[in-house]
Structure formats: structure tokens, C-alpha cells
Design brief:
With about 325 residues, the protein is an all-alpha fold. The protein has 13 helices and no strands.
């Protein structure tokens, strides 16, 4: 398949996963939905590895890094993403995930001492201004609600979405360690998703989350779409693209994804951004595109072939949704 086709496939799928997550909200608690999604995706990946005649075991030296990556990218990140979309429209969550372009090199700076240029810092400042504009009116309304004795659920969703982007960025840094130990992209993805499921299952048990099978057809449609397309097909398309054109160009998927997500949210969730919100989104996404032109992001750390893109993680999930995503 051609590189443009792979780019389009990954962008369309990840651009739609943030909205597809809303199909799983309501009937089943977020943690259990995450468990179903990545349990199914992990099983598919293990089956593909088995059919290819590969060993399914990883040495402990590699497994420990895969476990930590799975906890961050497919456990914590996606639990926060799913929970945040109970309070925020999917478009807003997807735009926040674009900030991973900045969180990821900062994590690489902390973990590996990678150099950051003035362009990255300036672009980050512009992005923060954009996010401030995008969320200013909603945050003000939530604060007034709290002052009036309300719950301010919007602020909870905002904090959860930011936590998701940070968790995915930590996962990106851990993927570099995974790549040093194993070059088997599909197998390490399978194990990382499985370890993410373990973390989510433990949390669900400890916190007393209700376990139930969904009955609505829309839930099952969302589950299979997110597991097969969002967690298996899109990741493989993205990784193949990295091998062909490099991570610095492939990561532009993270700029296209929020645009698609916003358009879907306007159509499917009746999201109606005003002039201030549009200005904030344009500032944020423009700063991301500008930052990606900086060679420092490519040098921040060697981009592994199995990094999770923006949640991309959302949705990944692993440069998990600046190397998705979501979801």
C-alpha cells in the first residue's frame, strides 16, 4: 500500500476514534470499556503473532519496560480519556492530545537529556494560549457553577484529559526503552495492551467498578471498531509509515486527527464552537505544525517504530495517539 494511503487510513481512523469512544459511554463504566477494548485488541495481536510462527514470550529485560509502557499508554491514559469524555465533547479531548507534541520531547529531555530548541518552547507557549482560548468560556462557566454549589464536571473532564496526554507521553519515553530490547512491533504491542488491561482490571476490582456485558448494538459496534481499526489496523499503518518516511513526517497525523475529530463532533455531537473556540483551535494546531518542523523533535530521542501516536493515546496509545489518538 502506498505511503499516502497509509497516512489517510491512520488519520481517518484516529480522527474518528475520539467520537467512537462516545458509543461506549453510559451503559458500561469507562474502566471496563477500556478493558474490553484492549483485551480484544491484545488477543487479536497475539493471534496474528502466533499465525506468523513467532514466539509469544519476551525476556524479562524487555518485559519490564513493556509492562511499564502498557500501564502508562494503554492503562492510565485510556482510563482518563474515556472518563474525560463523560464530561467533554470528543473534539476538545482530541485537541488536547495534540499537546503531546510538546509533552513527549519534555519527557525525553527528563529521561534521556535530549536537547530542546527555542522553537519548541515558543510553539508550546502559543499552544497553551490556544488551549486557554479554547477552554476559557467553559472553564469560567464551570467555576461559576462551583461557586454556586454545583459540581463543575467540566473541570474534572479537563483535568482527566490533560492527565491522559501526560500518561501517553510517559509511555512514549518508555517505548524507547522497549525498542532497545525488542524489534518485534506487533508482539510488544500485544504485551503492552495486555499489561494495560491488567492495570485496569486491578483498578476496577479495588474500586468496586460494576462488571457487565453491554446490550446495546451501538456499544458493540464501537467496541469492535476501536479494537480492530483503532487499536490494530491504524497502529500497523502508522508504524509502516514511520519505516518509510520517518517519524518527523508521520507524526503530522497528530495535526490532522483533531481536525477530523472536530468535524465529526460538530456533525455527530452537535458541537457548536464560537469564534473564540475556533481561534483557540487554530492557534493550538498551528503551533503543533510549527513545532513539528523543528529538527529537535526528531532528535529529542530516536523515534522507535512502535511508538504510540496521539490517543491517542488519545486512543494509543505507542507514540499512544506525538509519535495516537484516540482514542
Amino acid at each position: 500500500m502506498s505511503s499516502p494511503a497509509l497516512f489517510i487510513i491512520a488519520s481517518l481512523i484516529w480522527g474518528s476514534t475520539f467520537w467512537a469512544i462516545t458509543l461506549q459511554l453510559g451503559e458500561v463504566v469507562p474502566a471496563i470499556s477500556v478493558l474490553y477494548r484492549f483485551g480484544l485488541a491484545s488477543a487479536i495481536l497475539f493471534a496474528l503473532c502466533y499465525l506468523r510462527g513467532e514466539r509469544l514470550r519476551l525476556p524479562w529485560k524487555a518485559q519490564r519496560w513493556v509492562m511499564l509502557q502498557g500501564f502508562a499508554s494503554f492503562g492510565l491514559s485510556y482510563m482518563c480519556t474515556y472518563s474525560s469524555e463523560q464530561y467533554l465533547v470528543s473534539a476538545l479531548v482530541s485537541v488536547l492530545f495534540a499537546l503531546m507534541v510538546f509533552w513527549t520531547p519534555i519527557c525525553n529531555r527528563i529521561a534521556f537529556g535530549a536537547r530542546l530548541t527555542w522553537r519548541v518552547w515558543c510553539a508550546a507557549a502559543v499552544a497553551i494560549c490556544g488551549v486557554a482560548l479554547l477552554f476559557s468560556q467553559s472553564i469560567a462557566a464551570a467555576w461559576r457553577e462551583i461557586m454556586g454549589g454545583g459540581s463543575g464536571h467540566f473541570l474534572i473532564g479537563f483535568a482527566l484529559a490533560l492527565a491522559a496526554t501526560l500518561a501517553s507521553s510517559v509511555g512514549n519515553a518508555l517505548v524507547i526503552k522497549v525498542r532497545q530490547q525488542s524489534s518485534n512491533v506487533m508482539l510488544t504491542m500485544a504485551w503492552a495492551m495486555l499489561w494495560g488491561c491488567v492495570l485496569v482490571a486491578v483498578w476496577a476490582l479495588v474500586s468496586g467498578q460494576p462488571w457487565r456485558l453491554p446490550s446495546r448494538p451501538r456499544y458493540w459496534i464501537g467496541l469492535f471498531y476501536l479494537a480492530i481499526f483503532g487499536s490494530v489496523i491504524a497502529f500497523n499503518a502508522y508504524f509502516t509509515l514511520i519505516d518509510r518516511i520517518g517519524a518527523q513526517k508521520a507524526v503530522y497525523i497528530g495535526v490532522v486527527t483533531p481536525v477530523i475529530s472536530v468535524l465529526l463532533s460538530i456533525q455527530m455531537e452537535h458541537y457548536q464552537p464560537g469564534l473564540i473556540e475556533w481561534t483557540g483551535m487554530v492557534l493550538c494546531l498551528s503551533s503543533v505544525a510549527w513545532a513539528l518542523k523543528s529538527p529537535s523533535i526528531e532528535r529529542a530521542a530516536p523515534q522507535p517504530a512502535n511508538a504510540v501516536p496521539f490517543k491517542a493515546s488519545r486512543e494509543a496509545s505507542s507514540i499512544s495517539r506525538a509519535s495516537a489518538t484516540t482514542e
